[in-house]
Amino acid sequence: MTRILHVLDHSLPMHSGYTFRTRAILRAQMAQGWDVRGITGLRHGAKGPVEEVVDGLHFHRTPGHPATGNPLLREWRDIAAHADAIDSLIGHWRPDVIHAHSPVLNAMAAQRAAKRHDIPMIYEIRAFWEDAAVGNGTGTEGSPRYWLTRQLETHAVRAADAVAVICEGLRGDLVARGIDPAKIIVSPNGVDMEQFGTPVPRDPAMTTRLGLDGADVVGFIGSFYDYEGLDDLIAAMPRLVRARPRVKLLLVGGGPCEQALRDQATASPFADHIVFVGRVPHDEVEDYYAQVDVLAYPRKAMRLTDLVTPLKPLEAMAQGRLVAASNVGGHRELIEHGVTGTLFTPGDPAAIASALAEMFADRGFWDDRRATARAFVERERNWSSNILRYQPVYERLLAQRPAHVRAAA
User: Fold this and answer.
1) What's the confidence (pLDDT) of residue 337?
2) CATH number of the domain located at residue range(s) 3-190+383-408 in this protein
3) Which residues form the Glycosyltransferase subfamily 4-like N-terminal domain (predicted)?
4) Which of 68, 90, 154, 377 has the highest local Cβ count within 10 Å?
């Protein structure tokens, strides 16, 4: 039985798009009959034992706490601690392949251990760390730290035996850096249709409690980061309400921009049409999807959103919801305008309002579009089939192991 060790930033029981993608990968690989475990670094903030099973998945933890002090020295110590933990786990579990996931610190830690034990390693990039830092407000494009992180990322990709990325945007960027296209596979974001592909009926009591009775409901369910463009969505509400007086905006989630968005909504002349729910348990998310007619994703135009595909629009399509999103590169890989969703100009509240108003004005296409979008997810973004993209890469890496390592396996 092939053993795959996934090297991770964090995992369940923490909830994020990162952990849900990890869960989907591990569950699908276990269904293939592979022996799968994960090991997280010091940035995994959930309390718990150094080895635990969560939702049927086996995780190991790097012991200790993140270092403090100078950022470069701190990250170097974190890499060393993570590498030591990976090395220890390899000593008694003996994986056949190491599958490291971004950020690049994980790849650097995994490469140390992989080299020491002659184990092949694939590095999977979900977003470039330097661009993610710009997106969440902790970095600046073009700064010395941005440049250094980009160099580390390129070095890690060159050192890996194989590379996986979640979308064509990231693949194209690596190829432009001189990386051999044959070394890269695309393993796109997907949905576990067995777990998330059966929409639940709308709960009338919840509809009333949220003040949505008789409303045209626009919704956003996710994290409140600046790059998500929720300020533009709130700014679109006056125009949208004038065109569709029954419209309500339902915002589910939280994050760094939450208070600023609440303040913006309070100052809006149509504050009573904007409903903040806050964070909700993951097992209740489907109940909120059921309350929404159109899920809106108004991401701002920047490197991060042009290169990286989000997961949430796919979840909305799987739930049979209509999708409207800004016309940025990451959305264009998922949404065909007028076929599986509606695209509007990013950063333009008037364009957002116009696109949403037009969707509510003509419900005649809704059933066909929802069915088409769901079929797209089932056919091309279903984890049960997406996971097969890794298999030939694993097989090739295993075949390339040194003879003495193959003999000992």
Assistant:
1) 98
2) 3.40.50.2000
3) 17-190
4) 377
